[in-house]
Amino acid sequence: MMRLLNSGPARNLRRQIASSRRDFLGSAVRLTLGSTLLGPCGLARAAVFTKRRKIVVITFGGGARDQETFAPEGQINIPHLLRELLPQSTFFTQVVNRGILGHYVATASLATGVYETINNFASLPPEHPTVFEYFRKDLKRPASDAWVVAPSNGFNRIGESDHRSYGRGFGAQVILPKHLLTAALASEHTDYSHLLRDNYETPFYAPELGGNEFELEQLENILKLSVDDFKAHARTLSSPDELSVYIVRQLMQQEAPSLLWVTMHDIDIAHAGAYSLYVEGIRRTDRLCAEVWNLIQSEPEYAGKTTLFILPDFGRDSDEDAGGNGFQHHRTGDSLSRTTWMMALGAGVREGVVIDHLVDSTDLVPTLGAMLSFSPSLAQGKPIPELA
């Protein structure tokens, strides 16, 4: 339980909520770490040369609350994050999103280091340069070295901005697994609806999933998968995020990009109003994050030189907020729905460390810039000192 908050102006109340959350969540994580916690110094993994370093970012996407994740009552839902990844990580208890709480626009903000104001339900690129554009332009990296694997509800434009100094030609290549599956199915009538579910937030937004020759070219020439093999494996999967991680595995093995961004989205089924499905989405995402980490350790191109970031796009409404809908939505914009966590682990990151000071969502891109030696000059955030 959080401590009783004192009365006062709204600004003071928000500060008290953030402080309470910091103390509460930080204490819970420290208790879980127990003897593995090494304090501010921690145990640093070996540093790596920048030219060899790789970065993988996973958004624990769909909006996840503390009480279903790192709070004591929610830890049963994240056994892999808690027992396997947390002891190897630097864990940030206060990551604040001050922008629009829509999944596409929030992810775009994470990827640009600027709070984007684009329509969450329109197929629009970010207005500011993305981390992929900074990375490729500054370091003169080829298109094959930056990739995004994302759900299909609008994320097809997230790879590059429309900024006149960057934009076309400098962005990441984007793979939309549902588009690949739609293209592979063609006229087939087999039911894959459980893998093609798209936006849970509004029934009025349903972008077309039209497969075409471009998707089939990605499937066969880049991922080295035959249409028949891809369809056969898809039949064994239970969710869109499982399909995404399957694509991630192929992409890492075939292209080995230095900058790889993976957006999970199963948790967003919370909008359907079924708490059990929301929790199931969290548990699945927890397992898939561990699968990606284990894949990083097993792939020669990634093992020992990769830093993994895992963070939600934002939280969800509190059960106590009369203006919200609890776990189902993220409408209030209060401190609890804006404040989440971040886990960083791998090359150059100290193990078993908990950081309680506030980190802004827009700090991610400048931090990646410091790690990979590119300059995100138009980002609003700043490098996180414990990581940069």
Structure description:
With 388 residues, the protein is of the alpha/beta class. The chain has a single domain, classed as Alkaline Phosphatase, subunit A (3-Layer(aba) Sandwich). Helix content is 34%, strand content 13%. The chain contains twelve helices and eleven strands. The protein has helices spanning 10-33, 79-85, 103-112, 131-139, 177-185, 193-196, 213-222, 227-234, 240-254, 275-298, 335-338, 364-372, and strands at 43-44, 54-59, 89-96, 146-149, 173-175, 259-263, 306-311, 339-346, 350-351, 353-355, 359-360. The strands form two sheets. Strands 2, 3, 4, 5, 6, 7, 8, 10 and 11 form a nine-stranded mixed sheet that branches. Strands 1-9 form a two-stranded antiparallel sheet. Helix 5 crosses helix 7 and helix 9 (240-254) packs parallel to helix 10 (275-298). The longest helix is centred in the N-terminal third of the chain and has 24 residues, at 10-33. The radius of gyration is 20 Å and the shape is globular. The model is unreliable at 1-17 and 202-211 (pLDDT under 50).
Break the fold down into its secondary structure elements and pairings:
Elements: H1 10-33, E1 43-44, E2 54-59, H2 79-85, E3 89-96, H3 103-112, H4 131-139, E4 146-149, E5 173-175, H5 177-185, H6 193-196, H7 213-222, H8 227-234, H9 240-254, E6 259-263, H10 275-298, E7 306-311, H11 335-338, E8 339-346, E9 350-351, E10 353-355, E11 359-360, H12 364-372
Parallel strand pairs: 2-6, 2-7, 3-10, 3-11, 4-5, 4-6
Antiparallel strand pairs: 1-9, 3-8, 7-8
Helix pairs in contact: 2-10, 5-7, 9-10
